[in-house]
Amino acid sequence: MEKGSFIERFKCLIIQPARFLYESRQRIIFLNEKRLSVGVSPITSSLERIKNSLFLADTFFGFEIPHPVPPLYQEIGPVMQESYPPLTPKLSSFLSLHQRIMYVSFGMQAFTTLENYAILLKSFLEVIDRNIIDGIVWSLSGLENFPTLSDDTQLETSEILNNRYTHIYVTTSSSLEELTPQVSILNHSNTKIFLTHGGVASCHESLYVGKPMLILPLASDQFSNAEKLEEQGVALKLDKMDLHVDDIVRKIEFLQLESRVKINLKRMQILTKINSKRKYRAADLIEFVMKASQLNPNNNDVKESVVDNRHMKEGKESSEKVSNETNSESIEPAIEDIYEWLLKEWITPDSRMGFIRGKYLDVYGVVLILLFSIIGSIIWTGWSVVSFIVNSIASLFEGKLKS
């Protein structure tokens, strides 16, 4: 929102959060009823449930707009697989026979209108006819949503769906077991552009292999992803409510030929690959939480371990008995001093100090009072001095006039 208008920034800061809270109200009420039924305390907001939880975010700097985050929010993305499914023989053959391919995929859960599908198909035929792109790989979640054209285009839709048109190859991903090998397609040297819905996983994969994106956001975070990547100079976005063939063709040509896009992509690819190694840090953090959760004052094994360590340091036999009084008076505080709660290392002190003390408002308040007092004293002193001088001069003139 750095370049947004006042209205856009107002919507982002006020309207959208208010709408989210309103829309989530019924869900929170429903979940609270379920919580009460099993003896769990209700919550007032979704954020309250995770306020002291370790939050692992599948994102990274460069992809997100820079902003301050609390210590419990740890960016560990992009989480990439160690290996990906290879190309099928038919896909490999198609990719090898075409030099400038655009890969098209809108995921398995997002759909647009039949009119938009028709506009997209016309755009594909247009870029092929102009020799901007010479091949299209289109991954569909099902053929039932594919349009049937009845205008002046020279190609029947059935020809495309049955892969009888040499420049367009259609694949279907009707289930998780039949997913199109997206990363392998994007990583192919002949793939030049990725037309996507802007899902975060698709964006990460495209950046990882260094391919520009034409994004048609359909729902959820896809709109913000499109804006962020367009701001980074590695993508252009389309409007699902206002699609035009000429606009799509122009943006495809720009992404393929513009040198600045290639430079920006190289930079983002470096960032993506470097940050992709942080998934191992995520595993370390999870392991720490799992092990640290066993260290609590009510765990008898922990108490016995602390007792044994103390006696070993004091040169006593490990079999020496320790009274319950010693346990309650010396062991419990020792454990609490070492480990007050599970995520102590990440929870900032201001969360325990309260809003006023945590934000140093009491200190700032005293400083302001002192400043106002000093300024007031200076003004009062100055006014007194000026008044004294004026009165003295006035008295002097009065004395001269009387004389």
TrEMBL record:
GO molecular function: UDP-glycosyltransferase activity
Location of region: Disordered: 301-326
InterPro entries registered for this protein in UniProt: UDP-glycosyltransferase (IPR050271), UDP_glucos_trans (IPR002213)
Pfam families linked: UDPGT
Residues spanning the membrane: 361-383
Entry keywords, A to Z: Glycosyltransferase, Membrane, Transferase, Transmembrane, Transmembrane helix
Regions of compositional bias (Basic and acidic residues) in chain numbering: 301-323
Protein name: UDP-Glycosyltransferase/glycogen phosphorylase
Organism: Rhizophagus irregularis
